[in-house]
Amino acid sequence: MTEIIDRNYAGEGIYRENIIDHYTHPRNFGKLEKFDVQHREFNPLCGDETTIEIKVENNIIKDIKFHGKGCAISMAAASMLLSELKGKPIENIKNISKEHVFDLLSISISPVRVKCALLCLETVRTAVKIYEGGIVEKVDKKVYM
Amino acid sequence: MEISLTKQFNVEKIRKDFPILARTVNNKPLIYFDNSATTQKPKIVIETLNKFFETHNANIHRGIHKLAEESTLLYEEAHKKVSDFINAEFEEVIFTKNTTESLNLLAYSLFNNLKENDEIIVSQMEHHSNFVPWQQLAKSKNFKLNFVKIDKEGNLDLDHLKQLLNKKTKIVSLVHISNVLGTINPVKEIAKIVHENNSLLIVDAAQSVPHMKIDVKDLDVDFLAFSGHKIYGPTGIGVLYGKKHLLKNMAPFLYGGDMIREVTFEYTNFNQLPWKFEAGTPQIAEAVALGSAIDYLNEIGPERIEEYEKYLTNYLYKKLSEQKDVKIYGSKNRSSLISFNISDLHPHDVASILDSEGIAIRAGHMCAMPLVREVLKEPAVCRVSLSFYNTKEEIDKFILALDKVRRTFKK
Ligand SMILES: Cc1ncc(COP(=O)(O)O)c(C=O)c1O
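ok -> structure tokens follow
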């Protein structure tokens, strides 16, 4: 059996001041009046969901907002990531790595929370694919009913 | 009263039977409050598993050597222990992998006896395992699937059940105790209602068998499913009870070895009950260890377990309802679990902070997504589920730890 070391990684250590700040005052939170693409992702593990709306002009992200419900980690990740994206070429989204999101959060993410941290990245990536006409809306809202 | 009960129920002695309860998590003593997901195992169960592999291991119902004989004997003895535990006949108990497999076995086997436009009833408080199989089969064969509503208190609306029942209703499949709300459904009364309509009643007893004495004859249910790992036994072993005359007329679920009597190139005669439904080499060691878990529970006494857990749950309910920012879901008529939310904090965050205090609770939709999202209207909830090895002191520590949750989020 793999020797498992009881590291204190899932504990209160992850709730740093800036995480709490982004969670309680998320940046770019809300809805856009006009957008070019909208996408909703769902984390079946915890029931979290997030919707991202992007307004694009000349391939630049003119405005981007998210709304939905999530834990501190998923909300903070979305808040931080979106702040960074505004004003950048939409192309850039394709090159964002998971590690980059972890770096933004700058806390060690335990395996059980990885999905929370990456929900937002998943959502923007899919949004870009939809924007480029690559795929149709992927999340099947009827999966559970 | 409090003192006499605690004295009578020697929880400190019982805790010593569970090796894992001695460990620490994040440098704090483990407080295990996720018993509805799975229970911890007493030493006797762990030792039985070891002993089986060290001294008896062989395949069963085949071979005439000594080990095969011993293994077969032990396996059948485990069958007998489980049948006695729920007051069933020997032929009426089938070993499966878990509750989920038991319910799937029923769905797939009973499916053969259904016609298009027949109706099946489940409730709004089902675990996915008693819901998705029916939903998927209903789609593929054009059955209608109806849902019994729950009222504001979280109780099953029996009037609605009566309204839904009609000549086309062939199967009613309901949870005994909700793993989210803790609601205890009146199964005996429901059985009468369902049988008056000549329908079959299936009961998902995954959360009731661990906490109360179950007598299938008294309840008069047609089928009942539960998991070994939730009653202090190993993972990988589940139980399906079915009335003999019904099982006899049902098609097997899986085909293969052990479930046959005679095979020719043209036809197969199936084995007698319960083996007809146990194709292939079963979970032999796990079954034997489940037998030990039942011995252990019988030794303590299901009635005493129920009494002590009730006392603990009442205490937890009282303490939690004193917290002004805590919202509790479900009715007062509940088993040993409480789902709640604390102010508008996400259950994941609450569970993470509690984990840093060594406290294990569940956070999420509890595999009952339609109930949590569409009825409770929450993305997720926190759940504390108790066992007879938990203590009042652990509940006090948990309540104190909620302050740490609040401090972290400045609530
Ligand atoms: C009410 C209920 N039914 C069914 C199940 C499924 O049990 P298993 O995963 O052992 O098949 C559970 C487990 O959480 C449950 O709580």
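Residues B 36, 98-100, 127, 129-130, 175, 179, 204, 206-207, 227, 367 surround pyridoxal-5'-phosphate (CB under 6 Å).
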